[in-house]
Structures are given as C-alpha cells and as structure tokens.
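User: Structure tokens for this complex, please. No commentary.
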Amino acid sequence: MTQLQRPFNFSAGPAALPEEVLQTAAAEMLDWHGSGLGVMEMSHRGAEFIAIYEKAERDLRTLLAVPSDYRILFMQGGGIGENAIVPLNLSRGAAVDFVLTGSWSQKSHKEAGKYAHSQIAASAEASGFTAIPDPATWQVNQKAAYLHICSNETIHGVEFQELPDLKALGADIPLVIDCSSHIASRTIDWSRVGLAFAGAQKNLGPAGLTIVIVREDLIGHALPICPSAFNYELVAKNDSMYNTPPTWGIYVAGLVFDWVLRQQEGSLTGLAAIEARNIRQASRLYDFLDASSFYQNRVQPAARSRMNIPFFLTDESRNAEFLAGAKARGLLQLKGHKSVGGMRASLYNAMSDAGVEALIAYLQEFEKTSA
Amino acid sequence: MTQLQRPFNFSAGPAALPEEVLQTAAAEMLDWHGSGLGVMEMSHRGAEFIAIYEKAERDLRTLLAVPSDYRILFMQGGGIGENAIVPLNLSRGAAVDFVLTGSWSQKSHKEAGKYAHSQIAASAEASGFTAIPDPATWQVNQKAAYLHICSNETIHGVEFQELPDLKALGADIPLVIDCSSHIASRTIDWSRVGLAFAGAQKNLGPAGLTIVIVREDLIGHALPICPSAFNYELVAKNDSMYNTPPTWGIYVAGLVFDWVLRQQEGSLTGLAAIEARNIRQASRLYDFLDASSFYQNRVQPAARSRMNIPFFLTDESRNAEFLAGAKARGLLQLKGHKSVGGMRASLYNAMSDAGVEALIAYLQEFEKTSA
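Assistant:
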C-alpha cells in the first residue's frame, strides 16, 4: 500500500498512533494470524484472544518494569471512571489525600468526596496551575488510605519529573498516580507507587481501555457498594475477564507495547529510546517558545510536561487564523483545551521529530506574517 | 483485495461482524474520509468524530424506532457494569423487581441487591431455565422502582417473544430490559419499556461499548454514590462525552447500524429484513434439531431464542470430537457455555444462510459417522 505523507496529529487524546500499528490493525482486520477471525469477532475466552491478552500483559510488564507483586488490570471507564473506582476499592472508610496540580487532580479530588473524606495535601491553584508544590511543603495525612496525584496534567501541561517519596515525607501510605497522559513515555519508580491508572487514549491508542497497575496487598478491600465490574479483586481473580474486556483496545494497545519495545535511538532501545526522543522533541519546542516573544508557555520550567505543551499567541485575536493555517499545512488538532484557551501541542510517543520540526517551521512562518 | 471464503463464526460474543463492515474499517484505518486521521486518532470533540457519533446515534434511532423522549447513551462497562449502573440510577431507594429466566437475569438480580431491596417477581429456575414464566403469574411489586428482565438469555437460549405489558399486569412501573444479545435483531415495543441496555459485543460488534436507551423522565434520579462516569444525567447532558467515549466502538457499531438499515429480504428492508432472515435461520436449525434423535435442544419452543441455540449430543462423550470436526470444516466457536455444557450456535445478524446450511450439513455428516 502506498501512502502519502500523513498529517501531523497533535491531539491531546484520543491521539496519534504509530503508522505501523494502524497498518497491522488494518491488515489483520479480517483474519488474525490465520485464525479466520478478526480480533473484534473473537470470544474473549478463546485461545486466539487469550494469546493476544497474554502477550499484551507480558509486554506492558516488561516495558514498565512492573514488579511481580503488582497486578495489571485491563478495565473500562477511563480516568473519570477511576476517579470513583479507586476510592471505592482503596479508601476502606479512611480519609484520602490529594495534591492539586491541574484540572485532572481537581476532578479526582471532587469525585473521591463521594466515598471518603477527600482532603487537599497541597495545591498549585494559586499559581494558575503552572507549578508543582514542593513535596517538602505537603500536609500529608499519615492516616489517609492513600495520596493521589496526577503525574501529568494533560490540560495544564504540568508533569512530575520525579514521583514523590511519601515514606521520606513521613507517611507510609500508598501513592496513587493518574498517569493517563504520559504512561509508556518514561519509567515509573514502583517503589514509590501503590497504584497507577491510565486511560489508554493518549499514549496507547484506543479510547475505552483503562489500564490499572496495582500492588497486590491493596486488592481485596473494596467497599460493599463497589460495582462488581469495577472491583479490583474480581477483575484480578478473573484475569480482567470478569466481564467481557474491551478486546479491540487490548489488541491495539498490545501492538503499541510491541512497537515501543522495538524503538531505537542510538544505543538506547524500548522505553529508554522513547524517553530520549520525547525529551529531545519537547526541549526543541520549549526552547523555541522561550526564545520567542510572539509565543508563550506559562508553566515553570521544572514542572513542564514532555507530552502536553500549551502555548499562547501574544495576540490572541489571531488564534483562529493560526489554527486554520496549521490545518492547511497538515498540522492538526492544535487547539487548546477550552478551560485554558490558546494552543496545545501534544507530543505523545507516536510523534516524529519531523512533526515537531514542521510545527516549529509553521510557528516561525506565522510569526513573520505579523511583522 | 481478494478473500477466500471466511469460516463461519458461531461465537456467542464477541461475535461475527459483517464482512463489509470489517472491510470498511480496514480501508479507513489510516484515513477516515480524507481527514488524514484514523478514527482511533481523532479527538472525540473534533468535527470528524462528532459526525461519526451523530450518524451512529441517528441511525440507531431510526433502526429501533426509538421515540424522541428516549435518550441514547453510548457508555462503557458492559452488561455486568449496567447490573450496578441501572439500580444506581433508577432505584431511588425503592425495591426493584426481577424475573429470572437464566444466568444473566440471575446475575442482575444479585448485583442490584447491593443498592436496593432486590426481589424476585417470578423465576424459571425450577425448569432449569428452559421456559419463561407466564406474566399472568408474576408477583409484581407495584411499588418497585422498576422490573428487570433479560429479554434474551445468551447462555440458556431463552428469549421473550413479546415484552410483558406491566400496566396490563396492574403495575405502572418501568420495565428494564437487558437486550445485549438480541439488540437490533427485532423491533422493541417502546410503549412497554423504560430502559433498554446492551453490551455491543453480540450483535453490534465491538466489546467495550454499552448502549443505554432510556426514557427521559427516568434520568436525573441517581443515588449520590453513583460514579459520575456512569450517571445517566451527566452522560445525557454531555451527549455521551462526559468522559472520553469508546470512539472506535461507536464507529464500528455505526457501520453495523448502516449495514442493517441497508439489508433486504424480498420486499423487506432494514430491521424487518434482518428479522425475517433471523426467523428463517433459527427455524431451519431448530427444525433440524427437533427432527433428530442424535441432537437435542431443551428449551420450550415458545421460549426459544432466535440468536443463541444451545444443543447437546445424545452421546456427550463425543463433544470434543464434534468440536474438532467442526473447526476443521470452518465452523468456529460452537462450544457451549461452561455452566450449561454441550454446544451453542449463535446466529447473530452477521450470520449467513450459508453458515446455517454448512452447520446442518456437518450435523448430518457427524451423526452418520455414529451409525
């Protein structure tokens, strides 16, 4: 199949997938590996789908170096679903702590209040969510069931460069991370994490798949009102097949895991290669924005996301013109989230260096037209 | 693309899709309608996906003749998720009623007990779930928040040929139907239904999409503990985009809706054509089974499902041999559910007459080898 250059897709999610993954998914649509069945047509309990599921689980475990005492669950409901599902499973009648660094941690904090006393250990709201509060200043409740952070705020473009060490802060409680928008873009220090969850529709592809990685000792304590479909114990005991899992999403995410593991950058492979590429691409764009007086990113450098880069034109009356010109040049889905405004370039794993260079070339070109 | 004859797929779900739908999904994988984006790569809030969503919603409304005072919601969590989500949204602190006709209504009854006093208005358990209790004998609680039935029991192969008229039974309460495994195979009498839900992975295709069709006056009464992602009011107000919907599933289901609307059988079109085809295929197989002393279906004729046809060999020691021979002839996924045993042929909308004839030819052939 010949294919013209595809446009560059900067969507914050659902987002660009590697072209190779899409081609494989298309080629196997009517017949997966000689089975005569398309993946969407397979019983989730049949040998063919079990093979797909087991490879996806194994590859994700390898990719993120998930320890053997953590379970990987393939679920439904997305990040907003998990905002309820986490406290339903982990709160055990105790209080829960949150650090607010943007829209997503705010939403999680609010939803948890339905099931537990939901407290704020620290908040960056006063900064307009352009910073991450220094962990040394957090007011951590040592009796909380867990402390929740959003390790990458998709809307505000704020990312934890290092996960907090709650033990060092004097609190021996599990850390919960919502890593939806940067999962599989960098390593996770599991010694600091009790549970990680991620909607798949950013870095892994298909909306409707939610990945939960949870330490085994945190499983089995759900509140009686937790719906069975979202009870980690039932999901874990049934290898994510207590109910019919989102089979197509698991398949496509599995293709993405396989693709990430095969990436190379110089002597680096897999996640290390992806991370080096992400750092290079994000630095290139931030450096350009910082050197310009025409564009602006407002996030403190230490808190800037590698994945989601919001920026503003100095003259915001030209936003529509900017977006139309971008689209005409094959630079798609650059509009910022409505709650923040401006622009946002999401540089997920599937973004190429060429895409970032094409964006910067357009940023330069557009700035010149205003001279 | 040339394609050899595909095998015939009798899976109970996830299940066969029309070949035309799979071909379209493959062809559009990298570029939907010239947008330069694959469907999985589109922001759910962009013009491209909104067009896909709106056509799917419109076509489903046409297909099932859904009245204007019913909302169609595209959700996640499947039938097992809805077993909790329905009482979380509709029970309002009142009791809820169930009619037990098989495994699925049993599961629904049990799960609802977490949120409401969950009662049994009638049960066919004594018959081994081979019949549907006469509605005239149901003990309907007139003060229940609703009465729930599974209008087609996938595992036991039992189907309501007519929906009960609760008003005629003296109870002016909403009827809830779990129609997961026969949605879009026959008409629904909405005058008798308050809410219908269906996991999409039987007749519509992609696992991970759940369709809820609910009368507007039943929306807005969720219990405070209902997770926001599964609160019908929030989902409805946000046109199924309170959280990121399962975009690929909506797209594929939309292709299926479009395919159903274009089906023809003689002078019949759309759902009427599909229904005529389903009746013809199911009758052909039941007639064959009934005429045989080698095979047996145990469901009372009046309660037999057009979609899921469980059957048994008289000599069950030959089950493995039967299944191996079937697979060798391209007749796939005929093994019965583990809780019932034996075989099960699911004849969903995508099944062709040729598939049913091929199955019957094999049934005849296999019987002869035992003479």
